[in-house]
Amino acid sequence: MSLDDPTRAGSARQSWSPGSWRARPAVQQPDWTDPDELEMVIDELRRQPPLVFAGEARNLTAALAQVASGKAFLLQAGDCAESFEASTADNLRDKLKVILQMAVVLAYSTGVPVVKVGRIAGQFAKPRSTPTETRDGIELPSFRGHIVNDIGFDPKSRAADPHRILQAYFRSAASLNLLRAFTKGGFADLSKVHLWNLEYVKSSPEGERYEEVAAGIASALRFMSACGIDLDTEPQLHEVDLYTSHEALILGYEEALSRRDSLTGDWYDCSAHMLWIGERTRQIDGAHVEFLAGVHNPLGVKLGPSCSTDEVIALCEQLNPARIPGRLTLISRMGADHIREMLPPLVRAVTDADHPVVWACDPMHGNTFTSASGYKTRHLDAILEEIRGFFAVHRANGTVPGGVHIELTGEDVTECLGGAENVLSEHLEHRYETMCDPRLNARQSLDLAFRLAEMLRSGS
Ligand code: PEP
Ligand code: CO
Q1: To the nearest whole number, what is the mean pLDDT of the chain?
Q2: What is the Cα–Cα distance from 350 to 346, expressed in whole angstroms?
Q3: Ligand nearest the Cα atom of residue 279
């Protein structure tokens, strides 16, 4: 059957099951040490409770439909690769603080609601450009994220251990539990907006600028209270919806956490609210597209410079044949030097095909390079330039620049260059802690949020 056969998506759907991806080529899957043990682990996972509920995933689809029509803005952010050991209460709290701060800056400056989606509570799997890594003549499997192996360069650390899959599930559950407590239990109350400013950020120019926003919010709340509005009864002022997301890479894990929703009878991948397909796994006849086509969560797909108009349309048809607004987010990651030339044909093709997608910009993965000091890094200027290009393309085409997809941490790291503190190549070694790609620290993230708010306001 050819790709453009109109019955294809429908017939694929009918024959879909959580395991139907197994008949397709699955790239980027590890060589597990013991396949029998892998199946035992997957069976065990099938018996565990889901991490999220179908109704929550549907709420996110509805929120993303608002983004698709320009009535809300998407902020998707978090680690490149979460670490088991670093998923501590303090780290989760500080990452949440940065995301909340960025969202407040964006919403306060633009008056547009912000849909907050973390790369969090399950972002444990990494695609790699090469299956092995060689150091001093020794060749070992590449590090593929803590759901697969460990970062240490020795055979034991790099072995793909199926037990890590269960560990990833329990770590995700613990992280999600704390995030639910933080976002629903008082910590994310708007009256606490001052407390989200991290200690190392407070005295910086970005931190002071944030304090002005926080003071503005406090005074608006006092004003509403003085007008007789009972702020205690408005849940939006006291709670936040933070959705979770990760790259759906290790398909056995995602399959084992898929559940049929008792209300609708539809399948959902209950490992996170939103799942995305990476640049390396978006083959139209591949296992990842097959699996995600059948679950009803909102989905993302990364689109790099090699993506053709035929491919993007095939992805839309396969993943969202019913053209449901909010179901599909296309996340372009072209690089600052390419976006103005590479994105427009894709935007036009999707618009002409009448697909109601969310367009988001990942300004991180097309702007990575190795610094003179030997570190994998990114410059904040290139990141901002790609976002400027993204806005320019959408404004020129009359489409909606819906959101951004950012790699960041609350920790005071030196992994990306630039920003108001001007991290230089020679500073990278000071606190370079990422297990995978370089992340913006909280100061750089806030800086980005203020610049983004200006771009959203000025229309440029
Ligand atoms: C990522 O988001 O960390 C990633 C690997 O991205 P991409 O698939 O776009 O390269
Ligand atoms: Co990354």
Answers
A1: 95
A2: 6
A3: 1
Could you tell me where the beta strands, DSSP code E, fall in 43-83? 73-78
pTM higher than the cut 0.85: yes
Ligand 1 site, residue 282, Cβ cutoff 6 A: no
The tokens describing 415, both together, are 């992994």
The residue whose CA has the least distance to atom 10 of ligand 1 is 279
For residues 88 and 91, give the distance between their C-alpha atoms in angstroms, rounded to a whole number: 5
CA-based Rg of the chain, rounded to a whole angstrom? 21
281 CA distance to ligand 2 centroid (A)?
A: 14
Give the pairing type, strands 401-407 and 358-361: parallel
The alpha carbon of 126 and the centre of ligand 2 are apart by a number of angstroms equal to 8
Ligand 1 and 363: CB distance under 6 A: no
**Ligand 2 geometric centre to CA of 219 (Å):** 39
Closest CA to 300 of 55, 76, 83, 59: 76
Site to substitute for ligand 1 among 27, 76, 79, 80, most atoms within 8 A of C-beta: 80
Segment 250-305, tens digit of pLDDT: 999 999 999 999 999 999 999 999 999 999 999 999 999 999 999 999 999 999 99
Find out whether the beta carbon of 438 lies less than 6 Å from any atom of ligand 1: no
What separation in angstroms does the CA of 270 have from each of 117, 275, 397? 15, 10, 36
For 118, list phi and psi in degrees, rounded to 5: -90, 145
How far apart are alpha carbons 99 and 122 in whole angstroms? 17
Regarding the beta carbon of 305 and ligand 1, being less than 6 Å apart is answered no
Count of CB atoms situated within 10 Å of the CB of 115: 23
Nearest atom in ligand 1 to the alpha carbon of residue 437 is: 3
Q: Residue 428 carries which side chain, given as an amino acid letter?
A: L
Q: Find out whether the beta carbon of 279 lies less than 6 Å from any atom of ligand 1.
A: yes
Give the number of the atom of ligand 1 that is nearest the alpha carbon of residue 302: 9
Architecture (CATH level 2) of domain 49-127+162-458: Alpha-Beta Barrel (3.20)
Contacts of 300 (CB under 8 A, 6+ apart): 76, 245, 274, 275, 276, 277, 328, 329, 330, 331, 360, 405
- Using alpha carbons, select from 183, 178, 66 the residue that is nearest to residue 115: 66
Neighbouring C-beta atoms of residue 308, cutoff 10 Å: 12
- The reported pLDDT for the residue numbered 266 is 98
Centroid of ligand 2 to alpha carbon of 436 (angstroms): 7
Across the range 6-21, mean pLDDT stands at: 68
